[in-house]
Structure formats: C-alpha cells, structure tokens
Queue: 2 jobs
Job 1
Amino acid sequence: MDIRFSGASVSFGARTVLQPLTLMLTERRIGIIGLNGSGKTTFARLINGLVKPTTGTVSVNGLDTVRDEGAVLAAAGFIFQNPQHQIIMPIVHEDIAFGLKNRGLKTDEIERRSAAVLARFGIAHLAKRRVHELSGGETQLVAISSVVVTGPGILILDEPTNQLDLKNRRLIENTIAGLDEHAIVISHDLPLIERFERVLWFHDGKLVGDGPAPETIRAYREAAEC
Amino acid sequence: MLNGLNVEGSTPLHRMSVRTKLAILLVLGVALYFVSSLFVLVPAFVLAVGIYFTTGLPVRDGLSRLKPILFTIVILLIATAYLASIREATEAFFRLMALVLFAGAVTATTATGDFIDEITRLLQPLDRLGLVRAADVGLAFGLVLRFVPDIFNHYQAIREAHRARGLKVRPLTILAPLIILTLKDADTIAMAIDARGFRRPRTDRNK
Ligand SMILES: Nc1ncnc2c1ncn2[C@@H]1O[C@H](COP(=O)(O)OP(=O)(O)O)[C@@H](O)[C@H]1O
Ligand SMILES: [Mg+2]
C-alpha cells in the first residue's frame, strides 16, 4: 500500500474542513482519532476519491483519485459509518453479489466468491435473510463482506464499532484484526486501534498527532481531559 | 407492510420464468381493464385470492402486505361510488383487488435479484438506443425494495417520538422529519453506490 497526500486540502464552499496535508501511508493498520467534526471522515473519503481534494492531489498505489477514479475505488473499499447506507440490495446474498455483478463476473464465479466470503466472516447462515431485519453486528459483517468480496487491497472503515454493544464490538474488533487487507480505521473505540502501527489524530481539520498508537492515543487522551 | 419480497418455495409460480410472469400480469391487467361484468371479475378475484394464499406466504403476512394498498383502494372506491355509481365501485373493487393479488403473488414468488436482472434485460433495446440506462432502472427497482422498509421504520420511530412527547400524530408534522431523514440518508446512499463501483470508471468526467 502506498497512499500519498501532496498538499491536499478540502473546502466546502468558503469553509476549509481539512488543512493542506502532505504525508505518506504504507502501514498495514492505521487508526484515525479526533473529536466529532474534526475532519476524520473527510480525510478517509479523500483516500478512495469519494471526496476530491480542493487543492493538491491524493494518490493510491500510484493512481490519482481524480484521474483514475474507478481504479482507486476498486483498490480501496469503504465501509460507511452507518452500514445500513451501503447495503443496497434487499437480501444479504444479493447485496454480496452486487459489487461482483457490477464488475461483470459470471454467475458461478459470483456464487463461488460470495460463498467464500460469507464463510470467511462466519455469516453463511445469513445469506437468505432480509437486510433490514439484521442485528447491528450482523449488518456490519454483511457490509464488510460485501466490500471485501470485490477484492480491494485496502479497507477504510468509518467508526465500525460505533453503534454496537460490547459483544458485537469484540466481534468486529477480532474481524478487523484478522483481515488480510490493509486497514485504515476511524474510531472512538480506542482499544480497537491501540495495537495499530500508526495513529493519526485530527483536530479542527488539522493533523495534530501522527505516530505509533500508544503515543498518539496518550496525547489525545491528555488533551481531551483538560 | 409492503416488504415486497419473496418467500421460498417450489410452487408452479416459483418455477415459472420472471418474463412469463410479468407477461401474464401485463395481459391480465389489460384484459381486466376492459371487462366490467361481475360474472368475470368475481371469479377472477376468487382465483387471485386462491393463488395469492398458496404462494407459501403466511396468512398474517399476506394480509398485512395488503393493508397499505387496501387503504388506497378504499379511498378510490368511495370516490367512484360518489362520483359514478355503487355498481361501478363494486366492479372496480374486484378488478383492482384481483390485480393487486396477482401482482402480489408474482412478487412473493420472484427473487428480487431475478426481478432486477429481468427488468435490466427487457430494457436493453432502449439502452442501445441511448434512451435509458437499463442498469440504472434495475438498480432503482432494487433500491425501492431495499429502502421502503427502512423508510417505514423511520416513520414508526418518528411517530413513537411524537407519542412519547405527547404530541398529536399529524401527517404533516410527521412528514417533515421523515422527508429530512430520508433525504439525508439518500445522499450517503448515493455515495455508497459510487463507492461500491456501480458507476464504473467514468470517462466523461475529469477531462
Ligand atoms: N458535504 C459536506 N458539505 C459541507 N460540510 C461538510 C460536508 N461534509 C463534512 N462537512 C463538514 O466538515 C467538517 C468535518 O466533518 P467530518 O469529516 O465528517 O468530521 P468527523 O468525521 O471527524 O466527525 C464538519 O464540520 C462537517 O460539518
Ligand atoms: Mg465521521
């Protein structure tokens, strides 16, 4: 993984929500922390081109998020803060197949890959369920499966344990820990990211901390408490 | 609730191709429109009831799916009875109910994915002429089926919040927050569709 920000900033109208940023991301596990509204989601969306930089450029494995939009979307999967929003088909197995169909895969290949991903995340029994009847943890697993199945090398997860109870939080934590993919995880759930190789801390649209998880998290905690 | 989704099964309707079912439904719709004799409409209605409840749909579920549309039909009937005649209202009742039940039976016996694939396939000729994007229309159908229950859940949550605060439940005061919630969702859902690669690499943008 090779993600590069070169002077990338984001403004909505006159308001700059992310200050110009130049950095490189290569680690397997990267956490993002910061208060509500500090620009975490905007930063994460820049990576896979859902948000375009107002100034500067962002590239993923050498692909520019503006020029090579489609390829970047395929390389970096995004799991939204509310997984309900990204589950597009009414039945679980249909939703898993959705991304594969869009890539023009054959039916038997779609079935093979869907079955494999459902088994990998331990949700084969949910295949025929209606998505609006799933529990929070199940919904999150379906959302992750439906992105992983298309084979992106990078996964971006926006507050994946936010709406979950303790048991489901552990389940998703273990799932993320076991991912083969590179993962960039926004989280208020600090135990989730405390073993990560690198954590970025945003405050008011500025990157104010960047380093190994223990240091950045400690600084963040101290700042939040006074 | 119009969950509009299928039940597993192996009845003849389940095994029939989506295209055949849609064609039969279309023919029935047109035919029933031209018939006004109760000697035809009532048996058609009875047949439709029979088919609808042998799709494997639990009776309770089957009945509750009909509720929203029944409400619309009743309003229509009252208007017809008032503006035309009771006889015409009676005909309209059996005609509409027969159609609703047949359509319900088709929905109950067809997997959404198959439905969407078939619609996309049927629209291919128009797609080639550049009139529509068949895949978009297929997706639109899927989205309706996917999100109608969500919108209904929003509606119930808002209604409960009204009750909890001792507010009168009026359509207007419920509609405003419902529309806002739905539009907020719609923005993110549109982004999610992009993120999941539906629109494939764009060549017409970012020249
Ligand atoms: N599409 C948008 N239009 C206008 N303002 C936005 C948009 N998206 C985010 N913002 C604003 O940018 C700031 C950062 O938002 P966000 O990146 O979502 O923060 P976080 O994820 O850290 O809570 C917020 O003040 C938010 O209101
Ligand atoms: Mg956010």
Job 2
Amino acid sequence: MSTDTRPAAPAPVQPRGPVRVERRLPRLAPLGLYLAGVALGAGLSALTGSSLSSTVVYGVVLGTLAVFLASRLVEGRRKATDRLVTCLVTTAFGVAMVPLVSLVWTVLDNGLARFDATFFSNSMFRVVGEGGGAYHAILGTLVITALATVISVPIGLMTAIYLVEYATGRLKRAITFFVDVMTGIPSIVAGLFAFALFTLLFGNDVRLGVMGAVALSVLMIPVVVRSCEEVLKLVPNELREASFALGVPKWRTIVKVVLPTAIAGLGTGVTLAVARVVGETAPLLVTVGLITGTNLDPFDGRMATLPVFAYYQLTQPGTDTQAFLDRAWTAALVLIILVMALNVVARLISRFLAPKTGH
Amino acid sequence: MAKRIEVSDLDIYYGDFKAVEGVNVAIEPRSITALIGPSGCGKSTFLRSLNRMHEVIPGARVEGKVVMDGQDLYGADVDPVNVRRQIGMVFQRPNPFPTMSIYENVLAGNRLNSKRMKKAEADDVVERSLRGANLWNEVKDRLDRPGSGLSGGQQQRLCIARAIAVEPDVLLMDEPCSALDPISTLAIEDLMTELKDRFTIVIVTHNMQQAARVSESTGFFNLNGVGQPGRLIEFNPTEKIFSNPDEKATEDYISGRFG
Ligand SMILES: Nc1ncnc2c1ncn2[C@@H]1O[C@H](COP(=O)(O)OP(=O)(O)OP(=O)(O)O)[C@@H](O)[C@H]1O
Ligand SMILES: [Mg+2]
C-alpha cells in the first residue's frame, strides 16, 4: 500500500477545493497493526517468561501504541487521537467482558453435568446421593416471584403514576427520597422485615412462601417505582394536553393515553425488576426455608426456591459431595438462564409494544 | 350552539410571572375572531385560558372572569372537563396520539370518553371530519396506519379533524396553519368560514392576510418590554383594524409587516 510508505512530511497545503482529500490508513490496517502489536508484546513477555496477565498488558499497550504512531505519521493528529481513544474504549470494553465471559463459562462448564431431564422433573424428595433434581425449586421460584410481582407491580406502578401525574412539592420529594432509600436496603434486611412482620402476625417459627414474596416485594417495589417513573416522565406533555383539550378527565387520560403510550417501557421496567429479584437468596433463606418435596402453596409452610436450593446443596452436601455440587452448579445455570430469558422478554416487549410510526 | 364569550379584567400568571394583564373583550358567536401580535406577547396564553387549559401547567393561574352564555367558566362549581368538552382546541404544535391509528385519532374525543357509537356512524364522523380538515384524500387508504407516521402538516390537519369531530361550541386554534402549504391553508380557511355558521372560532395567527381574509374581529396583543405582561392593545372589527386602527401601535405592527 503506497499510503503506508509515504514519508511523514507535513501534508502540503492544498487549495480549498470542493472536497479536501485526506490521507487515510487502509481500512483493515489499524486492526492489523493492533494485532501485530499484541503479538509482539506477547512474544516479548514470553521471552522474559512472565505471567499471563502481564502478557495481556504488554500486548494491549504495544498494540495501542502501534496504531497511534502509525496513524499519527500517516493521518495526522486529530485522526490519531481518535484512533487512540477508540483503542482505549475497546480495551475497557474487553476488560469489562472478562468477568462475564469467565462466569458464564464456569457455570456452563460445571452446570451442564446435571443439566438433564431428571433435574427438571424430579424433586429432592428422599434423595440423599445421586439423582434428584430441582423441579420443586424451579416451580417454587416461579410461584414466589410471580406472587412478588403481583404485589409489587400495582403498588410500584401506582406510586410512579402518583409521583409523575399528581404529586407536587414536599410530599413528592419525601416519597422520592424514601423510594431511593428503599432501593438501597440490603436484601437480608428485607428478609428480616418480612420475618418479623409474619412472626408478629402468626407467632414463632412461621415459614411461608408468601413471606418470601413480601420480602422480595420490598426489594422490587422501589425498582418498579423508579423505572416506571422515568418511563412516564418520557411521555410528552403535549399528549396529555391534547387529551385534556378533548374534554377527557385526568384519570382517563392517564389510563387511556399515558399508560398505552408508555406501555413498552413499563413492561420492560417490570421485567427487569423481576430479573433483579429472581435470584435473591438471603431474604428467602430466612422467610421461606427449604423442603425436599414439592410444595406449590405459598400460604402453607416451607417452599423450595432455586437460590436457596443451590445454597444448601453447596453448604450442606451429604456423603456424595460431587452429586450435591453438581446440582448446585446446575441450579445456578438455570437461574442465569432464567434471568437471561427475562431480559430477552424485556427486549421483546419494548420491540413489539412500542408505538409504531412507520408506513 | 355557538356561544358568546365575555372576558373581563383577566390577568394570567405563570407562577409569579404575570404573562397577560387586564384583558377585556367580547367574542361574538358565529364569527371568527383573530388574535395577532408579536411573538411572546401572550396570545397562546390568553387562548389557553379560554378553555381552562392554562391551569394544566403547574403554578399557572388566572384572575378575572371569563363568562360564556352567562356562566363564569372559572366559577367554583364549574368542572374544567366540561368547559373543555364545549370549547375545543388545536395546538400550536401538532400532537396526534402515537398509540392510535389515524381513524382512532379522529375519534379520540369520543373513544377516550367511552362514548359508544355505531360503526357506520363512526365511519361517517371520521370521513366528515377528515374532509373538513382537507386530509381525507391523502389518508383514506390508510386510516388504520399510526397517526404519527404522517408529515407535520398532515398531523396538524389530523389534529384539526380530531378537534372538530367532537363538535364543540367554540373552537380555539393556535396558529393552525403555520406548518401548512398554501393549498391546505386555504382549505382550513374555507373550513373555518364554513364552521362559523355553527361554531364560535378564535384563531391565533402571524399571517396578517389570513386574519384579514377570514376574521370578523381582530385583537392586537402587544407588550411594552421584556418581562412585562402582554396586553390587548386594540380589539375592533377586522376592516377597521387593517384600514384605520385606533392605536398607533397597531398601525405600526401591521404596516411593519406589510411594508
Ligand atoms: N409554560 C410556561 N411557563 C412559564 N412561562 C411561560 C410558559 N409559556 C409561556 N410563557 C411565557 O408567557 C409569555 C407569553 O407566551 P405565549 O406562549 O403566550 O406567547 P405567544 O404570543 O403565543 O407567542 P408565539 O407567537 O411565539 O406563539 C412569554 O413571555 C413566555 O415566556
Ligand atoms: Mg403561541
């Protein structure tokens, strides 16, 4: 490529023609240079016999440097800065991806061993060693999370509507403040709150699925409020005014104009709030406990849930330790899949419910 | 059903800021009243106070009287919702409902209030309103498409159709033609002339010729300086305003525009 080999003389001052021609690196050159730099760095550190992490660091630094210098020589300062920042941002992204990829990889690696039909169809009833599954825990998690959603969404959504459409002044600021405080409540505190509440009501030693749902609601409500509030604020005021001007009362305007306009965002927000609490362990540990059999009635005794199931499989393995560990990993894998599925659902909601503008 | 509106000593505030001061005017039924004046002098503010849309803005309030057929619209026992059902409005910027189709947008006034209507009747209202707003030919093949997919000018005409579909007694229009081409503008003007047999119409416009063409009376708003409240400087029959206005300020404003 001729552009690469040109001397690094300052670009001749060109008359201001209709379009100024600028010298550019060929399209794939930066990537090639970057990889070459990385390879060089890796080679260097291999020679000096250093560890994997320093290899990566050397490689990234040299790669970035190679791209920057080449660009500085050929393309000039502005473009070089652009390339430098691009390299830095991409590197930061790569660093951020490392834990995620590593986590997914580990869970997949360990969890696939027991990712079988038995795991999804059997409970742990009378299982002490191999076999058994989390059928009861998966259903329990679904029941309790659904119940928590049923409690949280009306409260959260109505609070958000109140904050955006009605509240003014001091009360509004107070509610916003307390919602913010609630967002920061540690999950164990939410669990203890539900525990204390139900102990007050029903006496000692009570363990119910609905207690867990209440504890999860305490965590979920502020998330629902905040996300719904943001979404409702995005609905343009002009639409409310258009509706008022047609003689539509305020509550009808909210129900028939504001909520339908925001429905995609509301659905997304709620789904993400569900994803946020579906993996909570601590509050369920103190309120719902765990059983080996299947109990789907949240108003009658202990229930199994996936996070608590995983916790006990891990911390109290029986004689056949490996079987218990495998089940714990698979439970973790199922949880991750559940959360990912919820995120996909959230995206689908926002895709399909968003107001259409096209032709 | 057209109504006469009498405004006396009306002051309009945004919080502590007095935007309009001391308006006294009588708006005649079955006629078109035009409001003109420089930008920011309070025309929209005044217009919105006529159907109690002004108070929708937090902190906004009104002092004075707006009497329609003997009843004070700002009386203690008057529900703003009922006022707005009788006094329709077209806004300065088009605002169709994005979740609704063109068809539903036109019927929004009925649908949102859960008024039941037979299909044939609804079709009829939609066609009549869209024809009235000179939009029918452009959208008749895609009534089920979203209203927000239309061009700006088409959206504005959709909003006009939506406002006249509920047959209000009074129609307030805030620069309804500012985004329209001359043909649609003429169509809207024809529509106004046609509607004034039944409705009372108040229109804000920056287009002097338009005011002269369509209106019976014209009001000129002005303000003395930045931060000062706007005032209704002169209110007279349109012919008089444009030929021989009482006030020097009116003449300056009008002749300035006409060169
Ligand atoms: N929502 C609001 N809050 C506070 N002040 C406002 C608000 N809307 C308008 N104002 C102020 O009230 C005054 C009158 O505004 P208004 O919109 O009525 O002007 P206008 O005559 O309609 O102007 P234009 O011809 O540009 O539409 C202006 O000084 C404006 O800054
Ligand atoms: Mg205006």
